[in-house]
Write a structure and sequence with these properties.
Blueprint: H1 7-31, H2 39-58, H3 65-86, H4 93-114, H5 122-153, H6 155-163, H7 168-171, H8 173-192, H9 201-208, H10 213-242
Helix pairs in contact: 3-4, 3-5, 4-5, 4-10, 5-8, 5-10, 8-10, 9-10
Length: 254
Amino acid sequence: MLDLPRGLPGELLFLAGLLVLTAITLALQRWARVRLGWSPVTSILRACLQLAVIAAILSGVLATGWTVVLFVAFMLTTASWTSGQRIRGLYGGRRAAVAAVVVGALTTILLVFGLHLMDWTVRYVVAVAGIVVGNAMSATTLAGRQFATLSAERVDEIEAWLALGASPSAAHDEVGRHAVREMLIPNLDQTRNTGLVTLPGAFVGAVMGGAAPIEAAKFQLVVLAGIALTMTIAGLVVTRVAGRSPVVPRSREA
């Protein structure tokens, strides 16, 4: 296990370390004129609060099946709302976000446990759902915003297809496929280099939690395959829904 400081002085030291990392991040962004405001600070503060609450919940509340279902539903709702806010400028943006997150995440979760890749236990359901839903949210946001950018850049091409009588879905087809492809490339690179360049969090966490390396590796492989499926489904759903727009996206912004 990771030897973290214990006791009040140790906790203060831990918080001070987090503050230093966050301050350096903020200073670099300000120096480079990356306009994110106080987001690095507020994001860390929210993460601290939310993880404290979740840690308390996981320590006792999620002992029965129905509480797990509620917890997963809460994650899906939060992820859908977050992505919906990011891509609300797209045609049917909020609806696309909900569909992409829910369909992408639930499909993967049901397949993982339906194929008996993981034991149907509370801790595994929560762990897999947390990873999968988070990646569904990221994929939805990235694919949606990429779709918006490409649509604006290739407006003449889309307009030409529409003028020739193509349906909105057909006119946006190439843009949608390119958006999904660009969204997936970083994940595929990370998966391809797992163990060589990166040691993913699920593997490291399982080993630090006392699991045998081979069991941790099996868990990580399930996670990697699940993430790839989730992100692919989410990206396809959000771009297909957005691609139904009958309006030429001259000033579309996500």
